[in-house]
Each structure stands twice: as C-alpha cells, then as structure tokens.
Write a structure and sequence with these properties.
Blueprint lengths: L1 H9 L5 H9 L8 E14 L1 H7 L4 H21 L3 E6 L2 E6 L8 H25 L6 E17 L4 E6 L1 H16 L3 E3 L1 H7 L4 E9 L7 E7 L6 H19 L3 H11 L8 H15 L12 E2 L4
Parallel strand pairs: 4-6, 7-9
Antiparallel strand pairs: 1-3, 1-4, 2-3, 4-5, 7-8
Helix pairs in contact: 1-2, 4-5, 8-9, 9-10
Length: 300
C-alpha cells in the first residue's frame, strides 16, 4: 500500500529511479512540511504568443506542441534527479535537494538549467521543421532555506515549496529579459558553483518587493579555446562594475564599449543596456548622492 502511495504522490514529479529509492526508504519522506536548504529552478517560455498565433484555431496542434515542449524541458530535470513541483502555464518550477538529499544541489541545479536551455534549442529544430516560429526560455536559479512538503488542505494537497527563496528564483528568471541573458543565478548559488562554472556578475538589484540589493550573476560556457580570453574579459567586466558602483559613469561607458563583443558577443545586449543606464545617470543632476550601487527593479 505504501509503495503505491509513494508512486501516486511522486509519480509525476520525479524520475522512476527516485521513485524506487523512495519506495525502498519511505522514512526519507517527511509528511507535512520541513525547512531545507534547496536549489530552486524556475523557467519561463518566451515567444509563446507568436507560436500560439501560428496555430490559429488548431488548439489540438498547439496542445501537442506544448506537451512536446514540457517533455523536452522535463528530461534534464528527471535525468539530474530534480523534483518537478509544477507547470504554471508555460512556466516550470523544480527543485534539487528534495525529496531526497543532494549535497551538490546548487551545482546540479545550474547544470540542469543549462541543459534545459539547450533542450529548447533541440525543440526549436522540431518547430523549424514544421515551419513554426521558434521559442526561447529564461531560467532563474536560487539556493536557500525553503519550506517543502505536502502543503494544502486535507482534500487537495500536493508536494510544494514555499518561501522567499522561491519568489526570488521567480524574480531572477523574470529579470533575464532585461539583462539579455538566458540564465540568472542568485548570490548563494553563485558562491557555491563559481569554481565549476564561469560565473559573471551582472548587477546588484533590489527585486520587486524588496529594498535590499541582491547580487545577480549569469553563467557563460567558454570552451578550451577561449577560456583565457573569457577570464581576461571578466576582469575588465569587473572593473566596469566597479566604475559603475563608484558613479564613474563615463569610464563605465567606455569599458562597456570595449567589452561589447567579448564573451563571443553573449553580453552585447547587456553592455548596450548598461551604457544607456550610465548615460541616464550621468545626465541626471539630481542623482542620489548616497547611492550604493543597487538598481531598483520596477518590473517583475
């Protein structure tokens, strides 16, 4: 009975391998909620509206293609022992580090997010073959204390996550468009993975609903050929951020221009955005004297 219950409870969330482990060790599952240090991955589909319009009245065709998309991005999650919490429209939320412990949850979360992004490239090939417009995906990864467990009413409960760490992951994902990147990771995740991944700081930002600034980062994937070049460019990039924080706007602008095609052009949108921001601040006679480098985000 218990084995069946476990399968019923986690069947759609985790890989069959994890189901087996949970069935063998049901004591690993805490009923009710528990506070746990987890890594949370939030993704969102971009270009859905255009894709949807291309199907016209063919609701069935659109439903099928959306199922294909969900399947494509779920594969890396299940392969990396992630736990799918939910799909909300065209967004997905999953965690690493629960229901089973994983001491490497932050690294695995970043690995999975990158694999989900490349799964979308594969999915786009299907769309191109069908003559459909391609889509994109943004992802946010955040690590922190999270309430996880069977949350809900007696009649309808589900395995879910709650807490600040979850809303922050969603906010990080929401900022990917503004910064022109596909992945944004929070400071705790960045600290843990920085030796394994090429992490680069983007900004210090007070996400919507917060007053305290949070350092946000993206992850780039250099190859053997350009790793040295990437490293040098990152030093220059950090100089640019220092000038920016010190309100040396014109210096920051010229560094942005110098950096424009660094990192194989991956941050070119970002440098254009930062130049615009520095120019605006430079021309603002009333710019706050006590500014400490935090950007106040107005958009989610």
């Amino acid at each position: 009975g218990q084995k069946l219950l476990i399968k019923k409870q986690f069947g759609s969330y985790v890989s069959p391998v994890m189901i087996e482990r949970l069935q063998k060790h049901p004591e690993l599952i805490k009923l009710g909620g528990e506070r746990k240090d987890l890594s949370i991955v939030m993704t969102d589909l971009r270009g859905f509206t255009t894709l949807g319009e291309s199907y016209g009245d063919d609701v069935e065709g659109l439903t099928d293609i959306m199922n294909d998309y969900m399947t494509a991005i779920s594969e890396p999650v299940l392969e990396n022992d992630g736990c799918l919490i939910k799909f909300i429209g065209d967004a997905s939320l999953h965690v690493h580090g629960a229901p089973l412990d994983d001491i490497n949850h932050a690294k695995v979360a970043v690995k999975t997010a990158l694999e989900m992004i490349s799964a979308v490239d594969g999915f786009n090939e299907t769309l191109i073959a069908q003559g459909k417009p391609i889509v994109g995906m943004g992802a946010g990864v955040n690590t922190g204390q999270t309430l996880i467990g069977n949350i809900g009413s007696k009649t309808r409960f589900g395995y879910d996550v709650l807490g600040d760490s979850v809303s922050t992951a969603a906010r990080l994902e929401g900022q990917t468009k503004s910064y022109g990147v596909l992945l944004i990771i929070g400071p705790d995740t960045a600290e843990i993975v920085k030796d394994e991944y090429f992490v680069i700081k983007l900004d210090n930002i007070a996400v919507k609903g917060k007053t305290v600034g949070l350092d946000i980062f993206t992850v780039l994937e250099p190859n053997v050929m350009n790793i040295l070049e990437f490293g040098n460019a990152r030093n220059l990039h950090n100089d640019m951020l220092r000038c920016y924080t010190n309100k040396e706007w014109l210096k920051a602008i010229s560094l942005c221009m110098e950096l424009d095609d660094s990192f194989d052009g991956a941050l070119s949108f970002y440098y254009t955005m930062m130049r615009g921001r520095c120019l605006e601040y430079n021309n603002n006679a009333n710019f706050p004297k006590d500014w400490a480098g935090t950007f106040i985000a107005t958009s989610k």
